[in-house]
Every structure is written in structure tokens, then in C-alpha cells.
Amino acid sequence: MTPTLPIPAEILDLLPDAVCVVDQDGHYLFVSQGFERILGYRPDEVLGRRTFEFIHPDDRDDTRQQAVQVMSGIAQRHFRNRYLHRDGHAVDMLWSANWHPAHGVRIGVGREVTELRRVERELEHLAAHDALTGLPNRYRLQQTLERALAQARVSGDGLALLYVDLDGFKTANDLGGHEAGDRLLQDVAARLTESLRHGDTAARVGGDEFVIVLPACRDAEAARHVADALRTRLRMVYRLAERPFQLDASVGIAWCPRDGSDAATLLAHADREMYAVKRRVTRPDAA
Predict the structure, then answer these.
(1) Cβ contacts of residue 31 below 8 Å, gap of 6+?
(2) Which one of 32, 91, 122, 164 is separated from 197 by 20 to 30 angstroms, measured CA to CA?
(3) Residues in the chain with pLDDT < 70?
């Protein structure tokens, strides 16, 4: 028997990826069985319909731009977007696509990367957040502060920084050990987060040091009110090693534009102010 090649569709159906052929307006002309395996739609539910009916609404504009580039002759090899599965959940896809003007069709091959995207998001979170408290770290703080300053320059609104250092944290570690100290930091992080307005940011920048970003803060006096409220929120009696323990905090304030207009200057000013507060108020167990 002389071997013969099966029709291309039978070969394409064996691929784990989705193979799609659409016309210049984005109507499906062909989808492989991989499309159904990944997205749940049978070919008869897809053919004749436009691709954008199946793409996540938030990704449609970017996908349109990519389609324009493909049809201008720029092949896409690593374009990502999200499709909506037949049961409603989002599916992350990685596409390679090319335009074939002689046939008037665009061919795309898509691979599901949902699990890869989940891992990437976890790594992105770990890179930008403190592992113990879950608060943004110094790296994310810098990004947040730069964005907030850029918005303040456009809007003309003020912006304040609060540099918070816990007083008595060394005593907490001495009384209860590092595990108790870690629990205390987690509790402090939760109290800071619960006390802030929508749009404010609390970040952990050191062992027992935190920085609060207050966008649209009208003046230094308003920042002082927030600082006093945070300090009251933190001055709770804890129990460590079956003993009552009083935590306190020193808070330094920097207000933009009075104390600086860039991130480094504001952070340095708030840090100096925090240490000035510590020197003015003598606490025997200050950290």
C-alpha cells in the first residue's frame, strides 16, 4: 500500500494547541479540536463568529492592535491575551499569528498558559511585597511613590509621607522571641492597612519600619491628624509571655511640596523627622 498524507485538518487536530484560521474581519473559518479542548467550544459553535466574541473584554483593544500589526505584515510570535471559556472563566493564551494575503486569511496558533501566568503573578507579588506582612516592600513603595508624585504634579494636590518606627519592638522580641515579634509585625501591618483611606499605601521598609503614602493630602496638618490616628491605633496593650506589653510608635512626616518634590528627598525628610521625634520623647525600651 502506498502511504498517503491525511488531510491537514486531521493532522492539526492532533496538536495540543488551538489552530485558528480567520478572515480579514476576524470571522472564524476553521478551528482545530485543540480549540475545543482548551476553551470548551465545539467548532460548530465558533465558525462564522468573530474572534472578539470570545476574547476577554479587557483584552479586546490590545488584541485589535495586534491584529492590525499582523495584517500589515508583522508576524506575532508571543502575543498574550485572555479568552473566555465556554463555562465563563478566563483562559490565558499565548499566540503566534501570521497574515496570508494570497489567501485572505490570518492563521493563529494558541497555547494555554494559565498556569504559567499564575506562577508569574505569584513571583511578581513576591518580588514586590514583604513576605512576612504581605505589605508592599521598598521596591514597590518606590514605584507607588513615583506614580503618586507624577499625579500630584498634574493635579496640584499635596502628598504626604509618614515614616513609622515601632517603639518597644526589641522588648517584644526579648519577651516573646522572634515568633512573637513576627506576629506583632503582622498585627501592626493589619492595623495600618485597616486605618488608611482608599488609595493610601502602607509599605514595610525595614525590620520595624513602615512608610505610609498619602496622596491628595491637602497640607501637613492633615498628615499630622492621620499620623496621630495611626499612633493611637498602634498604641494597644498586647500580651507577650503572659505579661502586658505596651507598643508605641514614632512618626515622621514629610509633605510635598513643602519638604521636597521627589521621592528621595521626601523619604529622607520623613526619616529625619521620625528620629527627631524619637529624641524628643524618651522611652526606656525604644527600638
Answers:
(1) 18, 19, 20, 21, 41, 43, 46, 47
(2) 122
(3) 240-241, 281-287
